[in-house]
Amino acid sequence: MTDSSLLLGLVLVHILADFFLQPTAWVQARAARHWRCAQLYYHGLIHFGLNLLLLALWYQFSWSAVSVSGVIGLALLIAASHLLIDIGKSYFNGLRYFVLDQLLHLLVIVLVWLWLAESGSSMLAKLGLALLNKEYLLVLLGYLLLMKPASVLIGLVLTKISAPVSSAKQGSPAAGHLIGIAERLLILTLILAGQYSGVGLVVAAKSVLRYNDLRDSHDRALTEYILLGSLLSFGITLLVAIAMLSLMTQSIPPVTG
Q1: Given this model, what pLDDT does residue 257 score?
Q2: What are the CA-CA distances from residue 48 to residues 42, 57, 106, 185, 242 (Å)?
C-alpha cells in the first residue's frame, strides 16, 4: 500500500463512517443531547473500527516501522478527535459549521497521514507548488469572480431599473441568488471542459422554466427584469471564461527588479 493509497483510504473511511454509516436519527439525537447522546459514541466506535482495520492492513502490507500499539493509538486518535469535533458541531447549525466540521476532520486525517507516510511532506510540497501554477490560480480566480463579485455587479445593474412588484408566486430571493451562482459556475465548468453543447442545455433548461413562469404572470416588467438578469449572468460568465482561456494560452513574463 503506497502513501497516496493510505491517504485515500483514510478519507474513504471518513466518508463511509460519517455519511453512509451514520443514520439521520443519530445526527438529530446528537444535536438534541450533545455529549450525553449515546449514538455519538456509537459513531465514534465505527470510526475507530474502520480506521483500525485500514491501518492494520497498511501495517501488514507496508512493513512500517510503526508498532502495533502505535497503529491502535492512531486509530484512537482519529476517533477521539472526531468525537470532540462532533460534540462542538452539535451546538451549531448551518452550512458554514458543516464545512468547518469537515475541514477539521480532514485536517486530523492529513496530520495522521503525514506522521505515517515516508514521503508525505515531499508530496505536500509538490502539491503546494502545483497549486501555485498559473492555470490553477486562474481557475480559482475565475470561480471566485463568478460568485460574490458577479452577484454584486448584477444586483447593482438591476437596481437601475424598477423591480417588478412582488407577488405570491415569486420565489425566494436567496434561492434565486444561489441558483444564479450555481448556473454561472456550471457554465464555466462546461466551457473549461470543452463541453459547449452542455452550455446550450443549461441555457435551454433555464429558458423553458422561465418561460412557464413568465407566461403565467403576463407581467412585461417582470419579463424584462428576468431577461436582463439572465443575460447579464450569461454574459459575465462568458467574458470571464474567454479571459481565462486567453490567459492560459499566454505566458506571463516574470517580474524583474
Answers
A1: 47
A2: 10, 14, 15, 38, 49
